[in-house]
Amino acid sequence: MSTSTVVKKASALPKEILHKAYRLLHTARQMAHTYEENRAICSKYVHSTSKGHEAIQLASAFHLTEHDFAAPYYRDESLLLGLGIRPYELMLQLMAKKDDPFSGGRTYYNHPSLKREGFPIIPHQSSATGMQVIPATGMAHAIAYLESQGLKDKKTQSVVLCSLGDGSVTEGEVAEALQMAVLHPMPIVYLVQDNNWGISATGKEMRAMDAYEYAAGFKGLERMRIDGSDFASSYLGMKKAFDYARKNRKPILVHASCALLNHHTSGVRKEWYRSEADLAQHEANDPLQKLKNYLLEEAGFTAKELAAIEKEAAKWVADEYQLALQAPDPDWDDFDSHEFAPTPVQEEKGTRSPAKAEKVVMVDSALKAVDEIMKTYPEALFYGQDVGGQLGGVFREAANLAKKYGDSRVFNTPIQEAYIIGSTAGMSAVGAKPIVEIQFADYIWPGINQLVEELSKSCYLSKGKFPIQSLIRVPIGAYGGGGPYHSGSVESTLLNIRGIKVVYPSNAADMKGLMKAAFLDPNPVVMLEHKGLYWSKVPGTEEAKMPEPSEDYIIPLGKARIAQEASAEALEEGSSCLVITYGMGVYWAKSASKKWKGQVEILDLRTLNPIDWEMIKERVALHGKVLVLTEEPLLNSFAESLAGRISMHCFEQLDAPVMTQGAANLPAIPLNADLERMMLPTAEKVAATLEKLLSY
Fold first, then answer.
1. How confident is the model at residue 1 (pLDDT cuts 50, 70, 90)?
2. Sign, CA torsion 666/671/673/675
3. C-alpha closest to that of 184 among 138, 215, 217
4. How many beta carbons lie within 10 A of that of residue 25, not counting itself?
5. SS3 135
6. Catalytic residue positions?
7. Are the CB atoms for 112 and 74 separated by under 8 Å?
């Protein structure tokens, strides 16, 4: 196929295809008219329609099969109609009704989550423009991976359709996705619908080139141009594109020029910013009129036949609209369901300290856990920066895994934190089980977009249809002069993202047991792994090294552990206190507490979300004096939030104010080791706080 293919208008298409296209194009047009005529009802919630884009969307839908996957964007109403979704179902979403089949009234119009027999799978995605491209590419990545392992039948020739508007192509995350699609050849069709408008900005204001020209920069990415306002050309062009992806298992980008005949959204109306000349220019490319002319002049349809189709479509939309109006609203008491999908790991199992087991450091315990996971689950794969090849991670946390399992299962990615995180959403939807790594916690910020918008919301907004199984490993924390870009703590930011779980082990046994549970959890899990505990080289952290647990050892997420008990005598005398902490805080507290033998209990949270609130309340009531200890800067931190919660809910059991301790409130950790020590908590600083607490 030439890289400059321009698909020409077809001379003939099957009559049943043309009939279906005209009926559904009229259906979509009638829906847009109905929404405009009933603005008081239909514009309560912001929506977009496909008016002007119907031809390319229907043409694309007609080539999708039940074995395929799709990632539509918010204007793809006609694509959904073309797949067989009823106008009634779309209207239920428009009005945020209870029986909206995609989200139960939780998300916008044209934001489908579809898992239905006979249809392509459409996982949930956000409406943040361009962000769907990474999860969609992750789907294609998973298809290619599973096929390579013999875990998916190649005969189905599954492909992914990723649809996006031209304005979103300038997003950096789109570039990350295209780079990976050609680096690891994937069966995906990128459909760019170009109407030359963003919201109020035109193409010439937003870009130096169109998507077809841009695609030339990605070696190995096939590309095509299509007149997206012409159904016949669109149908044959998309057939060519799908055939290419199915046969060659490689990516292709289709640039389709379209007309924008309606408002950007119901909330941003065309008359506010578009000229009469611009509107007239777009009207000249109306796909409905083009298709009608083609049917009458070249395809042998009569005016009477077309009038009957138009009448049928208008009646269908009117009837569907009345049904949708009468449909019930969501149940209020169901507003909080599906925050997380249920996890199969509910209790601790296996042997924590097997007889004669050798002690291992945390980094080796993690390596062994991943090794055992990959040995047991062929659908598991591991990727990130520098984890593949000879190095096996900058901390050697993946040493020899690529050699053992092959480059298709353990591999390096470019410096693309957004792709590393966001691709796991697509992987999970297809059935792969990704383990990924962000090299340092300070590097996670480019991936936060995907973590928040794509991973965290999917289970809730799809009402449980698309939880995302994603294990994201993040080395974290400071020690020994790592400096401002390799030492940061980020847990408070992560804990403000609802819909993800956050785990923070402090020793080798917990590392292995929690890693296994995190992998089996059907929800996104971020596993924070303190670099200073990896090898137990930091003075006072020797106890992080533990006997390696058995292969079947597993710890449920959300269960804290007493890392150091207070004596019965101290409890009886009322001379004890409780330190609630995690990670390096466990060892600062242990070192600091030596002065008060038997008086200090240390509760290691192990999982920060879900948090073991019941155990916290139980131990607070037992001791009455509490210190919450963190490595993060203290102001507005998770630690302060937890201290406030304890103060509110356990007030009557307290014998002293709930104290907190953390790092100084500075924007970065300085490189100089002495300055680092000044900023961070130390055993000596913790001891001073314990003395004050115990004196109450």
1. low
2. negative
3. 138
4. 26
5. helix
6. 486
7. no
